[in-house]
Amino acid sequence: MSDCHATPAAPAERDTMSALWKGLRLKCPNCGSGPLLKGFLSVRHECPVCREPFHHHRADDGPAYLTILIVGHLMAPLLLVAYTAFRPEPLVLFTVFLVGTVGLSLFLLPRLKGALIAFQWARQMHGFGGHD
To answer: Transmembrane segments in this chain: where (predicted)?
Structure first.
């Protein structure tokens, strides 16, 4: 008796934490050595080392929201502590926190984008598992 309704083999399990770490380092979540981005935020079409395709990622606005969430939750309490403990001049306080906020945002944004793409790859979302 033939089984005409055979289920396809389940895709291999991927380690999410390992993929997230590789994504945070801006490396390919598959091989860990190829670069994930080709510019500041432009995602490569595929990994130059292992040829893993990245064209179907759906990072959209997620990295920006996560960056705002993290930077806001770090800088707001620091601003309060700096103001109450040191009472700096307003222009000094503004300048220090402006540089800190912009610097931290520019540092985190591509890394969070890499982590989000790596998460999608590890969970086989949006075509990363061979199906959409």
So the answer is: 64-85, 91-109
Residue 119, token pair as written in the block? 């998460």
Half-sphere exposure of 126 (CA within 13 A, CB side): 15
Residue 63 lies in a domain: yes
Q: Is residue 126 within 8 Å of 56, Cβ to Cβ? A: yes
pTM equals 0.86
Residue type, 47: C
Q: How many CB atoms lie within 10 A of CB 73?
A: 10
Distance CA 38, CA 43 (A): 6
Q: Tell me whether residue 10 is in a domain.
A: no
Listed in sequence order, the residues at least 6 apart from 45 whose beta carbon sits closer than 8 Å to its beta carbon are 53, 54, 55
- Show the tokens assigned to 106: 């520019």
| Average confidence score pLDDT of the chain | 91
Instruction: Give me the residues paired with residue 53 across strands.
Output: 46
Q: Quick check: 8 pLDDT over 80?
A: no
Residue 54, φ and ψ in degrees, nearest 5 = -120, 0
One-letter amino acid of 118: A
